Amino acid sequence: MSRLPPPPTEPSPQEGPPFPLLAVLAPLAGAVLIGAITGSPYVLVFAALSPVIAVASMLDGRRTARRRAREGAVRFEEECGAYTRLVEEAHRAERAQRDALAPARPTEAAPLESGSVRVGVARAPSDRAPEGGLVHVGGSRSGAHARQREALLARASWHPALPVLVPRGAIAVRGGGPAARAMAARLRLEPGVTVLDVRDDHPADAGGDAAARALRPDVELEVHTASTMTVRIAGQAPIPARPEFWSAPERERRRRAIEAQSARLPDHVPWSSLEPAGESSSGIPIGCSEAGQSVIDPIGQGPHILIGGTTGSGKSEFLRTLVLGWAHRASPAELSLLFVDFKGGASFPDLAELPHALDVITDLDESTAVRAITSLRAEIQRRERWLRDRGARDIRDPGASLGRLVIIIDEYAALLAALPELHATIIDLSARGRSLGIHLVLCTQHPGSAVRDAIAANCAIRVSFRIADNADAGMLGAGLAHRLRALPPGRALVTDAEGTRELQSALIAPEDVEAVRERWRDSPDAARLWQPPLPTVVTPRDVTRESVDDVAKTGWAFGVADQPERLRRTRAVWLPERDGALAIVGAPGSGRTGALAAIAHAAHESGSALETLSVDWVDAEATLLALRDRTPDRTLLLADDLDEVLRRCGDERAELLRLWDDVASALRRRGGAVVASLASSAQQQGLTAGRFPSTLELGTATSSSPSRVSPVPERRAPPGRARWRGAEVQIMTAPPLPAPQPPPVPDVTALGPRPCVVIARRPRWVGERLGRAHPALVLQSAEEAASLGSAVSLEPRVILDDVEGWTTRWSALQELRRTCDIILAEVGPSELRSLIGLRERPPSLHAHGGEVWLLQPEAPIVRARWHELADEAEGGPEL
């Protein structure tokens, strides 16, 4: 019980200070003594000030005391008002709890203990009373504030109007006048109640065990029971009748009565011994009560069932009995079962073999649980559309032709602890389940704390096994916590529209499950509510079998997308006109290259041309330059490990990215697109910012529910598993990427019909190689060529010198440029610009393999291979 705090403390009395007699006499005596010593009469003037000061101090102290008293009174009044509101709220909650614990009316044939009748309200001890026991006004304390506090404490200790419930059965009304006749008439309307006529002077006529009700003409009602409990309505001194106030003999008598009633029930009830309910009834046999076989009716009295009890009390066995009984009376077309077992999956392995069963979801695979609950949201919408299209108001309409779905959750509290975001879906299912044919069966050890009011309000059937906590007993509606504590395993109190009854739950055997499975052997299994998880391998043929949105029909399908929230799968489609450039991001081993190959295959099948970027950054630059200068139509540019290519190019990264952007823009204008694969860290470097509006993330295996707040921790995803446009995708297998085809590098030779100018960083080394390759070749230096003037252009020869030599003869070089081929070997871009005067950036070269720059008259500078230097050992840094 939740106790109220102590009432406010009354303000302490504030008294003014007394007259300070010594403080007046001491200065006066001192002044007289000083005047006698000094002989000055004026000293006595100061002595006269002492009484004045003392009187002023006393008056000021009393004024301060009165102000503090007023402040304390105001504070006490405010606290008393707040405490009064707190008491009223606590009493309202207590009244609501008592009303909720009142059992429903039983049938005419119900036994005496099956329910109670409410005869009025009475003043009674409050469960919310502050610590310290019951309080009566009029104690020894005095004062208005003390009496006000005493009144608050008394008000908090006694509830003014708690319901008075008496057992049904034979009730005697004693008394005369219209009030007694009215009470007797009302009691005759109560089912399960027999009213006995008893004269005022013969109270013993009521019988030994029958309850007697005394109604006096002044409308004061005394309720007497066979246990001598008495509650006087409108009286002033009620005698407590709550269980905690029972006397020891009364407590023992009730314990024996409970044991006697329990002893009349069998300890073991085989499920096979139960008789099936009639065709006109939707009840499910679940066990035996004192009146015989007991059934519950989830369809007629539900729709939802709440089950509570401690470990080992029989909750899970009751679930199995309920499920098997329901499956016995309904075909798989009429009933589908979804098991959610958060105790490791040990409760329903055999029942999962029934044709009604959809799946068993356990705490060992939380992602599947999220997938199933996500699909249930879509199932709610599907059922709503189904009923609307057929003009049916709910599932009971003959035109609905819709099967029922039962969701059995064992250890509901553990489910919410692991996946708290699923609570909203459970609330939605509980609110709309009745009309849609969706039933919840919630089983938990602590229903008082695990099941919220929004769900419990829709659980009209409540089954209470052994429970030790009063709050849990109240949530289940049994109202007899002392009785629940003594229940043996398998024994339960069931509360539904027929009242509260105790029963022994039936137990099923393996042959019972087999018999039900055999009963529906020729019936098709229940249709699944959701698609199975994505496979780890998807072929192009699998992709073509899936549906596709009309908008994306012209795009490139590269895999299968899972959409459990819409109960379907679709093709994963990249539509460049809608999505823009695509970045495929993932860790090593996640399947980046395979995803790139799948997109390339889809683009090739649609008639688009493919261009693959080389991982060699020099060749990649050559490809980009060629695409920029001559952009083809409907071409897809693929770049595998683009971040690695950029890392290798070092200081040329910015230039290569600028070139990539130019090509991407040119391709987009001509119906093409670009796609690149990147490592996960590339996004952190800002590489994709602004360049790739769309991202395909690989290695992601979280739930596909967009509404999740606390996602399930990621598990290791298979290669090719990705996230695309909010859905989980499995990339299809495809042929390998086409090999890069960079533009060919032309060969150049020093032997030609006209002179060739060579600018080399190591002219002697180059001259030696040329001499060995061509012994008859004429080699000249820049100085010799300058002395010949214009005659040099008429003779085939090689004019070879270093950068410094040509710099001093810059005018001669410009003259030769108009008629001669110029080869630059191992020369940097800055030296090229200073010698030739080029403004555009030259193409990049490999530092090995004999690659040089070739500048021909009236032509742009190009990358070429000088075969006389091509046998140079590979390696060394790139220029």
Helix content: 25-40%
With strands numbered from the N-terminus, the spatial order across the biggest sheet is 9-8-17-16-15-10-14-13-11-12
Which percent range describes the beta-strand content? Answer: 15-25%
CATH superfamily of the largest domain: P-loop containing nucleotide triphosphate hydrolases
Level-2 CATH architecture of the largest domain: 3-Layer(aba) Sandwich
Poorly predicted regions are 103-114, 135-141, 200-220, 225-242, 701-714, 873-879
Topology of helices and strands:
Layout: H1 21-38, H2 43-101, E1 116-125, H3 144-157, E2 158-167, E3 169-174, H4 178-188, E4 193-198, E5 211-215, E6 221-224, E7 230-233, H5 248-263, E8 284-289, E9 292-296, H6 298-301, E10 305-308, H7 315-329, E11 335-341, E12 357-362, H8 366-389, E13 404-410, H9 412-418, H10 423-436, E14 438-444, H11 447-450, H12 453-456, E15 461-464, H13 470-476, H14 481-484, E16 491-496, E17 499-505, H15 510-519, H16 540-545, E18 556-563, E19 568-574, H17 576-579, E20 582-585, H18 592-605, E21 609-613, H19 617-629, E22 635-639, H20 642-648, H21 653-669, E23 673-678, H22 680-684, E24 694-698, E25 721-724, E26 727-731, E27 747-748, E28 756-760, H23 763-773, E29 779-780, H24 782-788, E30 798-801, H25 803-808, H26 810-817, E31 821-825, H27 829-836, E32 851-855, E33 862-866
Parallel strand pairs: 3-4, 3-5, 10-14, 10-15, 11-12, 11-13, 13-14, 20-23, 20-24, 21-22, 22-23, 27-33, 28-30, 28-31, 29-30
Antiparallel strand pairs: 1-2, 5-6, 6-7, 8-9, 8-17, 15-16, 16-17, 18-19, 18-26, 24-25, 25-26, 31-32, 32-33
Helix pairs in contact: 1-2, 2-3, 8-10, 19-21
